[in-house]
Design brief:
The chain has 560 residues and is an alpha/beta fold. It contains 20 helices and 23 strands.
């Protein structure tokens, strides 16, 4: 990975988990604004499933919704590096040269079918070649090599004087004919079509060798070969190579004429998958003695490599948070990426940052209000479609400007966006309310998790969810089912309390389904409306009306 420079990083823009319209519309519009201003690659995200009403708004204004992501944990694919590969058919001699030229300690070897075979290193190669006394004689001191005449010619920088089937690979038994005729007869095997004989410039040795039905004659020192010997070799289908190298060099190089795929690769080689989380594999990579680790797809094709030094490099992405700033509410994995900007209208609960960041926050009813104001203040144009999307975010989050969180700026931005979009906030709100209610059509898990935020206050951890509904009787009908799902959620996430706020924006009224510790339940400042149900007349805002009350209860309990 390259060092962290001033080069722009890819930036993700994301709202909170279990996103609502304000969160998703805000992330989409802010990503567009920052893309125009910086030219940096910026991608808006939807953490989880796109809600039905948000999906409707994107369809209505002919905009492509952000891609859904369950997390932004760094994956192995995010730090992949390209790498020089050694292809099957490459000789060990060429492979060693590649290692030297690239400066890499190891390089991947790819088979003829494109699949990964293993990693070749100079150390592993030397270890195998020094495997003295191997049963097949393929060690450095052995006679046996697997190669072809074409490969041998290349390694020896030789000239082909005679020969056929030079591309065919086979086993060769290598001998050196550095002796007299009597010794030749004694030491050189007869009738061995695997025989490769290294000779000098003695024609009588050449001729005697040809009578042994050998496969290959290698003439060293660029010595001339008698035309009669060439004719005889052709009649015996013996290949002759002439090289300028001396016999000692020829012997050394012949071992390196073997195709690289015939090396025995380790069976316990560490490999990675592109889709694996980096955090899950970090310890294995660091524990590996290798500085370069191959990454393979499901078909064992090489996708790239991971360099161990990349683990200490800055991540390749940055984050912008919209409509939240607390880590517990953000998309999983956000802790791995630097946050460079926040646009929010909630309490500040984010962790300290290592460097200064841009933070836009105000006491308004919608994050889309703040983003619309950004467009207006910097003179960036808003298309009717984008203006309509932002308008939908504001009216949904402020319940058509009826929520107590509504600020004058929300109203001014609504008026401005209505002119640009050619529609009104009331029209959009009516359209959104026509979409099936959560309590009428969704399973309990989706009802309580659709727009849910988790909070931490001292030793207490709790979650508050909110849905909009025009018929609160549905809450009473499904109370047992919803309460059972809430209890499952409390146990799974080790929560002290969970509240589901069901809001009727038309009648400006809410009810709360609450499950939690006895201490919290006893101190809730609301009138009971049934088992685990409480009446909250006039309450429309989770942020401004419900959350402060719950925080007051948890704070008081911690002082006791």
């Amino acid at each position: 990975m390259k060092p962290d420079t001033d080069e722009p990083k890819h930036i993700f823009v994301s709202g909170h988990r279990n996103p609502d319209i304000d969160s998703i519309a805000g992330a989409y519009a802010l990503a567009e604004l920052r893309r125009r201003q910086s030219g940096t690659p910026i991608t808006p995200l939807c953490p989880g499933i796109l809600p039905d009403r948000a999906a409707y708004l994107f369809r209505r204004f002919r905009l492509k919704p952000p891609a859904s992501r369950n997390d932004i944990y760094l994956r192995i694919r995010d730090i992949l590096e390209p790498c020089t590969v050694i292809e099957a058919g490459t000789t060990l001699f060429e492979a060693v040269n590649l290692l030297r030229e690239t400066g890499m300690l190891r390089l991947p070897v790819i088979g003829r079918d494109g699949r990964f075979l293993g990693m070749l290193s100079s150390l592993a190669l030397l270890s195998q070649l020094l495997n003295i006394g191997s049963s097949d004689g393929s060690d450095l001191a052995g006679r046996r090599i697997h190669s072809s005449i074409d490969l041998i010619r290349g390694v020896l920088e030789a000239e082909v004087l005679t020969g056929g089937d030079t591309a065919e690979e086979q086993e060769f038994d290598v001998y050196v004919a550095a002796m007299g005729l009597d010794s030749f007869e004694e030491h050189i095997p007869a009738d061995n079509r695997n025989l490769a004989l290294i000779v000098g410039d003695r024609p009588e040795i050449h001729l005697r060798a040809l009578h042994r039905e050998l496969r290959l004659l290698i003439v060293t020192g660029n010595r001339p070969v008698d035309p009669l010997i060439l004719k005889e070799a052709a009649s015996h289908r013996v290949s002759i190579l002439k090289t300028g190298l001396d016999s000692a060099t020829v012997i050394r190089r012949l071992k390196f004429s073997t195709p690289v795929e015939f090396i025995h690769f380790p069976q316990d080689e560490l490999t990675l998958s592109p889709d694996e989380r980096l955090r899950d594999q970090r310890s294995r990579i660091l524990a590996s003695p290798a500085d370069i680790v191959p990454v393979l797809d499901s078909g064992r094709h090489l996708a790239g490599v991971v360099l161990k030094k990349q683990l200490s490099a800055p991540p390749p992405y940055r984050m912008i948070l919209v409509d939240h700033n607390e880590p517990d509410q953000s998309i999983p994995g956000v802790e791995e990426l630097p946050v460079v900007e926040v646009v929010d209208h909630h309490r500040i609960g984010m962790l300290p940052t290592a460097t200064p960041i841009r933070f836009t926050g105000d006491v308004v009813g919608s994050s889309c209000t703040l983003i619309a104001m950004m467009y207006r203040s910097c003179g960036e144009s808003l298309t009717p479609e984008l203006a309509g999307l932002l308008l939908g975010g504001i009216v949904s989050d402020t319940l058509l400007l009826k929520s107590p969180t509504t600020a004058p700026l929300d109203r001014r931005m609504c008026e401005w966006l209505e002119k640009l979009s050619g529609t009104t906030g009331e029209e959009l709100m009516n359209e959104l309310m026509q979409i099936d209610s959560p309590l009428a059509v969704k399973p309990a898990e989706e009802v309580i998790g659709g727009d849910c935020k988790t909070y931490t206050d001292g030793k207490f951890k709790f979650a508050l969810s909110q849905v909009e509904e025009t018929n609160l009787e549905l809450l009473h009908q499904r109370r047992d089912e919803l309460a059972a799902e809430i209890r499952r959620r409390i146990e799974a996430e080790a929560l002290d309390f969970f509240g589901l706020l069901v809001t009727d924006a038309v009648r400006e009224n809410s009810e709360l389904l609450a499950v939690g510790s006895d201490d919290i339940m006893r101190n809730l400042p609301y009138e009971p409306a049934g088992p685990e149900l409480f009446a909250l007349p006039g309450v429309l805002s989770r942020k401004k009306q419900l959350l402060p009350q719950i925080l007051a209860v948890t704070a008081a309990l911690q002082q006791d």
